[in-house]
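COURSE: Structural Biology Practicum
ASSIGNMENT: Worksheet 4, Part C
STUDENT ID: 0417
INSTRUCTIONS: Below are two proteins. For each, the amino acid sequence is given first, followed by its structure token string. Answer the questions at the end about the second protein only.

PROTEIN I
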Amino acid sequence: MSIRIHSTPIKRWPGRGICLATLLLLLISGSVQAARDSTNIRRADYYIDDDQERIDMLDGVLDHRVDVGDLAESVHASKIYFDLIDSIQRLIDRPVFDEGRKKLFRDHVYLQMRKVTYRSFTNIKRFDNQFHFILSEINGIQQGNLLQRLVGNIPQAFNTFGIFKNESCADSFLIEAAAYRPDVVFKLYDSYYKNSYAAHVLEETAKTAPVTAKRYFNKGDPIYEILKKSNDTAVKVIVQIMTRYTRRSNAFTLLDDIVHGSLTIEKADAIGRSPQKYLKAMLQIRSRPNPLGVHSIESELEVYSLKFIRVINDLHNEKDAVRFASIENFSAEELYTLMVYSEEEIFTSSFNGLFDRMMVKLGPVSGFEFLQKVGDNRFRTFIKMSAGFGKLRPFLQSMTPLYQQLLMIKFASGLSDYRDLSQAVEVADAFGSITDTLVLKILRSTVKIEYIKRMTLHDARGVAIYGLLSNLFVDRNIGSSDWFASVAQQYSLPSFDKVSNELLFDRDNIDRWLIYFYDDEDGDMSFTSFMKSFVDSNWQVIDSGIYVIIQSTHGREVQIYANKPKHEYDGQEKLENIFADNGFEPNVMVHRGHSYYAFKTIEKLKDNTQIFVLGSCGGYHNISGIIERAPDASIISSKQIGTMFVNNPMLKIMADRIREGQDVDWPSMWSELAVALKDNPKAYERFQDYIPPHKNLGAIFIKTYNRLMQEAN
């Protein structure tokens, strides 16, 4: 990026090829114009060089180095902003790419560089991931394996879509990505509407997520206008549902039955107005392989399952006859569905009650045959939950030893065949709850076999997944661990025991929190209890009517911003405007509300957030969504619904540690919190369901996998 004579940095001449001796000679002869002519004015990517100099000056000194406050991190930052970007430039310069492609690549590298600002340049992890992925994309275009790289990291691919939107696999990527984030595929339409594949991508996305598609069904909306002209049978049905019953109909979700003639549109609309009939119809569709509308079915099953589970949870003090009255007529398949789709909120006693009723209704049918009957839908989630709630052994006992072995082999096999990490994370999460020695031996053998198989197939992704899982068998008393120990050394799971105090403060030396309260039934009570936690001389409260700011009065400066629950919309909007207008990014974010609000908070995460407190577990998709937006965040979650009796003392202990200049050491903080809650048996019992960051196997697995894949690229 620049050259140096002794200790004085000199800006690189716009034409990289000219040597210093020639430059001096030209200057001596006064031929400045000749120098310009000899360099052919400027390189095609001069603006990237110029922007590197802008980034260089963000620390106030033009010296081919970026000071981020730590020597090792500063060296890392310099490699990213100069060496890595230079490598991308050299790759683009290769003759294999035509000039049109080169310009497109350069323009999008530049656009990503503009995101490196005074407030963000210290967040080197974000830009390390970002620019390494761009390098991987361009390599993939050159080597002909771009699609494999894109689907391996869909969130990053969305962020850099402009780089590959004209490549031959762009439509395949968008269609595959629609299974995970159809909303983003629709939102990106303005970026690809001129491409020949645009209409086909919209059709396939609508067929995967008709409930998402209907958001665009407004007169004059370009997406709606294109879909109205489609000749695709399923898309025609979607448009007909809109024409006859508007967006309010649940018939969109039953698309598979309508297209295949099992239901008329009229019958599907009627079924959609009866919660139990609707649930049964969705369950039947979901048991089929690759049904139409699968994304919408998944979302709706979660919504409707949680509706039933919340009723059962709320009646936890009632007798079982009252508590489970609403589901007594449910089939074994329906009870199973309620359990696996309500992971975010189901109480232990609710799960156990549903499980016992399901086993009775199974009758002579074995658990293995039952899972086949439901199409193995979320069977890994069920095994993980059963292990966590102490019900795995009774379930396995419903089948023969051979079927037990086959089920656990299937549980741990083929994890790299899925485009995302959800299934691998289910296995990793389940491991901590499995104590049965026989089951552990089966899993251990399966992981070893799969690792060797993936090595033979040169499947880097599969090797990484099973290499990471091998860590789970080290130091477990299930036979010799020599092989696992050797593999685990190559794929070690890092420690996330603490967050450094310095990482929690912006360049203005202020630690800012953003807490979202929601206007639900216990929002006011939760907010009032939270505020009482900070009634001491170390803190002061500024009440702004619709939100509060809690400020430290001693120690390091901490500012905690929180909307009032009755001001969910205007209060949160005001706080977001304050942060946006001042260029603030929250170092700590907290979700204080039911799980069905969680996605709203997660969508507002910033990549500089270091700690995120999520009231409920939310499974893989919530954890993955958090890591996508804040790669370095330590995540606190709960296996069940969060409670203010745990949340408030936890947040207060954490705030005081930060104010006192201490690192947030999770093991010691968890011990302190356990002591503080010991005298409150109910709170202490709920505390046992909270998962600290250093024990969140799912989050640790995803973060480590992402690091390994980045290094491989």
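PROTEIN II
(use this one for the questions)
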Amino acid sequence: MDINKVNGKRIVNNAKQNNQNKSGNVHYTDNSEKVMTELDKMSELNKTTFRGNNMNYELNLSMEELEKRTHKDYLNTKKMLNEESPEYKNLSNNDKLALKHLVKAAAILDKVEMELDNPHNLEFKSYLDSEIKKGNKQAELTKILFDAQKGVCALDTESNHIELAKGVKETSGKGFYPEDLSKEEFHSILIKMLNEGKNDEVKEILNQRSVVERDGDELKATDYVVKFKKEFGEMADELEKAAIMSENKDFKEYLELQAKALRTPDAMLDAHADKKWATLQDTPLEFTITRENYSDEMTESVIENPELKQLLDKNGIVPVCKDSLGGRVGIVNKKGTEDILKVKNFLPLMAQNMPYKDEYEQNISPDKESKQTMVDVDLVGVYGDVGEYRGGITLAENLPNDDKLSVQVLDGGRRNVYHRQIRMITSEDGQRKLQERLDAILDKDQHKLYNNEADHWFTIGHENGHSLGPKTGTEGLGKYKSIIEENKADMVSLAMLDVLTDAGMYTEEQKNQIIVTYAADNMLKSKPTMSQAHRVRSVMQNYYFMKKGAIEISDDGVLKVNVDKMIPTAKEMLAEIVRVQIEGDFEKGEKYVMDNFQWTPEMEKVAEKIRKVSKTLNGKVESPLADKLVAEE
């Protein structure tokens, strides 16, 4: 498997299919009732064209391509808990009842996030459902991919753009901004509004919790809580019911705070809920509304316009990208949590060993108790942003992020949540595929140092790495902020291995296993696009480590790790990254990324070999217990 990360969370990828897909369908646009009646008849035959509220939809992927991508060899499946899982059976009756309401609350986020992701998602979903009722097999297979990636547009595991409807593209503003709004027009409108003294309106447009729409020749922002009043109200109802059933005082209090935040458009209410959530350590159940802002390319573009940036600075406006929303429901695994918590005692030591530590404030203090909780969770369901299987799926998260008020204003802590069902390899077929990958790309003498569990250990270091380094001031890095932050978290995990081994966290063998496993898992199947922050940083690291002689790739695409050079090299890269974050300069950040984002012939050779042994192009999640609970009255 290729392991990649994205903005406070790690995602796991499983495995180029450059097809120009043609469905051969006629595209109708006549709006008369007579013609529409005829089209309805024809759709029974062609079963491909649909007129929604705003446009006609036509399926983009051919039957041949759909049959391939939905075949089990190409569609990876992650299975969540089922009704017979001992983790569920061992819950108290009250916790089982609470869990039902939590799943129902989280499931509502699927609809909300689809609106935030792409303005066509819900309409296209309705189209697919209507076509499936007519017996349209092409629509049925398309729906499998739509449900897996939770949207009409996505990237697959080989960085190919998957567009399920012809003519529907992913835009820089996703569903956060008007679909027809270009970056140039966006900048022009903001400059005009600022020059007219409409600072408060611009602040609302450039915050992380608003949907932006056209308002004449200007723009207006609507807070999420107002925009999704119905959905958020229904979620709050379910959380309040869960709180009544919960037997855990802290968890109950958190649910009540979160329900309140869903009903009132006040960011401080979210802050208080976040702060309470970050303290949860000994609860039987897990529920999270995740809010991460790594997919909004529109907001982050404003600092690239010198005139606009000058106006924003003059008026003290800091642009923050829009939050995507996700939901996670699970059962806390006590044994796994105990193992993860072992690192907490070493966090102050890690903070003390960060480069340039005297030049910035960290979330973890070297001389105070760490405000960091950690849980290992057996997943019941993942929804919205967390459940989007787009080239990968969330492996773990460290939240809240630095832009949240609970961190900035309330001095709250953070919480790591690890996803057991995502990281686990439970089948013989999964083990076989992993071995085939290792046989193809890793020096055979180093196979003994590859340990799948070592990737989990590396992930623990990565997630805690997000709490180390500069706490503020990185927004100026714009579209490179997430790439650089993810790079930092990886390098923290590697650079601290000697420190943690000397302190007793790891044995020498475990340290070496983490190093080799990281290097093997960091090899990619294809060159990523610049929009894939988590994969761009993998290329940067591989190039940097090759340049320093820490890893070597032979002419036939076999990786050999120079174990002794890995940690010193990681320390060098970490120091460079932190310096870039401290300075927060866009041009310096861009130069650092582009200097190291070099896809070499050696990397392509490895990618070719991975593609030969790993067919997976897409993935999906199956949640039998969650589906059952959602369906219950």
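ANSWER KEY EXCERPT:
Q1: Residues 1-53 have pLDDT under 50 and may be disordered.
Q2: The first helix runs from residue 33 to 46.
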